[in-house]
Each structure stands twice: as C-alpha cells, then as structure tokens.
Amino acid sequence: MYPRIFRKKAGSTASNRASPQFCTLTMPETSQKPRPLAHVRRAVIEVAFIIFLFYSNLLMGEFNRTSGTGKTFAVALYDIFTIKNLAIAIIAASIGFVVFEYLRKKP
User: Fold this and answer.
1) Is 7 inside a domain boundary?
2) DSSP 8-state class, residue 20
C-alpha cells in the first residue's frame, strides 16, 4: 500500500533506516522524443507573450501621455492597434525570441 521507503521494518532503528538498500527508489528514465511541433508551439507562445507586453506598454503610455479625462479605453485601443505598431511588435518579438534562444543555448 505504501512505497517501500515509508514502510516500517520490524526492528528498524535510526542507523539502518538510512541504509542504501532502504533508499533505492528512483524516478524511471524516459527516452521519449519531443513532439514534432513542440518547438514551434513554444516559439509562437513566446513571441505572442512579447507582443502582449509590447501592446500593454503602449496602452499604459497612451493613458500616461494624455492624462485627460476624455480618453476612454476604446479610444486608447483604437489608437494603439495600427498596422505600424503590429509590424514593430512582430519584428521586435522575433528579434527578442532569437536573442533569448541564443542565450538559452549558450554554454
């Protein structure tokens, strides 16, 4: 019912509880290959997160710049979602992904 390391043995003392044969359970090693689209999915998620950070920064800047009471959330969203901002976000996110992948794999 319990794993071997949690069962009490008859006549066990503190000295033989820490013996090597008592603590021999290890996690099984798996030799599964990564799924074919795992790298692509991770790249898309990381780039999307960088784009999200870019647009949230633009949105905060839009409200700080105007500091007016007439600016609504809908108007601010309309101002920041443009083709130019999208192109900048995609290019910056792609460069950021490449840099982080390089740093991640650097020995």
Assistant:
1) no
2) T
Q: Rounded mean pLDDT of the chain?
A: 79
The strand ranges marked E within the chain are: none
Q: How many structural domains are present in the chain?
A: 1
Q: Where are the alpha helices (DSSP H) in 10-82?
A: 14-17, 38-66, 73-80
Assigned domain for 49 exists: yes
Tell me the backbone φ, ψ of residue 10, rounded to 5 degrees: -65, 130
pLDDT at 52 over 80: yes
Q: Who's near 77: CB < 8 A, 6+ residues apart?
A: 59
Please name the amino acid found at residue 100. Answer: F
> How many other β-carbons are positioned within 10 Å of the β-carbon of residue 98?
11
Domain membership of residue 75 as a residue range: 34-107
pLDDT score of 24 more than 70: no
